[in-house]
Amino acid sequence: MSYTMEVNVAKNQVIVRAYGLTEGDVPSYIADFENALKKLKPGFTGVTDVTGSPTVLSPEVAALLAPTGDLAIAAGVGGWVYVADSPVWKMQMKRLFGKFAVHYPTYEEADAYLNGLSNQSVN
User: Fold this and answer.
1) What are phi and psi of 43, to 5 degrees?
2) Mind listing the pLDDT tens digit for each residue in 18-71?
3) Of 13, 66, 96, 117, which has fewest CB within 10 angstroms of its CB?
4) Which domain of life is it from (predicted)?
């Protein structure tokens, strides 16, 4: 599998780890993403960790995945973070997902950022 997708219902969060998505992966990725969204409540957060991916997304894969941003927005995403250590990844995620393309070099920093968002909505 070129990705994993985990839903943490207690944290109202989806965690994606990408390891090199191909065009063949996209249909199952989108189906998994839609299923994940059904388990989450509005205000949910997400993390996509691409540090394990050897390459950035091809233009074809990026185009096929672009609708996932709209799906997340329609489901009420409260924040999304990318764990990326490459400037090219950062640029690609920014182009695909705009204001939700916040980047941190480590998962721990990304998680701390999202925890801060959750705390803001509670206070």
Assistant:
1) 95, 0
2) 999 999 999 999 999 999 999 999 999 999 999 999 888 888 998 999 899 889
3) 66
4) Bacteria
Q: Under a CB-based contact definition with an 8 Å cutoff, are residues 75 and 39 in contact?
A: no
CA distance 14 to 23: 22
Which run of H or E residues covers position 48? strand 45-49
> Which has the closest alpha carbon to 93: 115, 72, 75, 118?
72
For residue range 83-123, list pLDDT tens digits in order: 988 888 878 877 777 766 688 989 899 989 988 876 655 44
